[in-house]
Design brief:
The protein is built from 9 helices and no strands. It is mainly α. The radius of gyration is 19 Å and the shape is flat. The two termini are 24 Å apart.
């Protein structure tokens, strides 16, 4: 069996174990499962980091994202990284229950679609590396915002139904969840800005102009404008609470469309399906 496939299978197994431990924590069997769930998730991240380095060395690239499975896996790696970093500042333990299925969906699909990656057909330089890294970290930040929005809707539904079981009592307050939704968008927006700016600079060096009518460039720019609009109307207090949460859900749908959907119309360097 291919070593990469074995590596991916082991990492997905660790993600699944962490998810099961989070379920045990939320099932009300005790708080002793939560530290173990986080420890296994950290171990998963370390193993994922080793896999990224292995793939980079095996394919002779700095950031292995040329194939669909590599892009999906790097997205899952980015989500875990942002989650662990944000956990230092915010109370995000409850996010693991919703975030891990999303991570496993990306990493598991990477295992399903594993194949020998194509040789990079574009030059690497500092703008390209900055573009790829900041784009994935931005998407990961928006994924965390998406998870916060789902938990907000779940908590809001529980409060309205007045049937609060142990699950709802372990969720943060609506105010805390809205704050996480907003702050993760605030983190992701400058990263997406850097991704676009470095992408334009790379395009200028390679193609001689800042702009190309590439489907992913167009979709990324529209997604940037959507998040800019959400952050602005929230900043001036035009929308709060459930409205900003619903807006963040729509915006993350645009992220997924930008990341994967446009590949069906893309024939250039951004196409992971080639």
């Amino acid at each position: 069996m291919n070593l990469s496939v074995m590596f991916l299978g082991g990492i997905n197994g660790l993600y699944l174990l962490s998810f099961v431990l989070f379920i045990l924590h939320f099932s009300g069997t005790g708080d002793g499962w939560k530290p173990w769930a986080n420890r296994v998730l950290i171990l998963s991240f370390l193993a994922s980091s080793c896999f990224v380095v292995y793939e980079a060395r095996a394919t002779g690239t700095v950031l292995p994202v040329t194939a669909l499975y590599q892009a999906l896996f790097f997205f899952s790696w980015s989500m875990v990284l942002i989650y662990l970093l944000m956990s230092w500042k915010l109370e995000l333990d409850t996010f693991g229950l919703v975030l891990l299925p999303l991570i496993m969906a990306m990493s598991g699909t990477a295992l399903v679609f594993f194949k020998q990656p194509p040789a990079p057909a574009y030059p690497y330089n500092q703008w390209f590396l900055m573009h790829v890294l900041t784009a994935f970290l931005a998407y990961a930040s928006f994924a965390l915002s998406f998870v916060g929005a789902l938990l907000y809707l779940a908590q809001n539904r529980g409060l309205k139904s007045k049937k609060m079981n142990a699950f709802y009592h372990k969720l943060p307050s609506l105010e805390s969840l809205e704050s996480v939704v907003y702050r993760t968008m605030v983190l992701g927006f400058p990263l997406l800005t850097l991704a676009l700016a470095s992408g334009f600079l790379w395009t200028r060096e390679v193609y001689g102009g800042f702009w190309r009518w590439d489907p992913k460039i167009v979709a990324s720019t529209l997604t940037w404008l959507i998040y800019l609009g959400i952050l602005y109307v929230h900043y001036v207090s035009l929308i709060r609470g459930r409205k900003v949460v619903m807006a963040s859900l729509f915006a993350f749908f645009c992220v997924l469309l930008t990341f994967l959907g446009v590949n069906f119309f893309e024939t250039g360097i951004h196409n992971f399906l080639r």
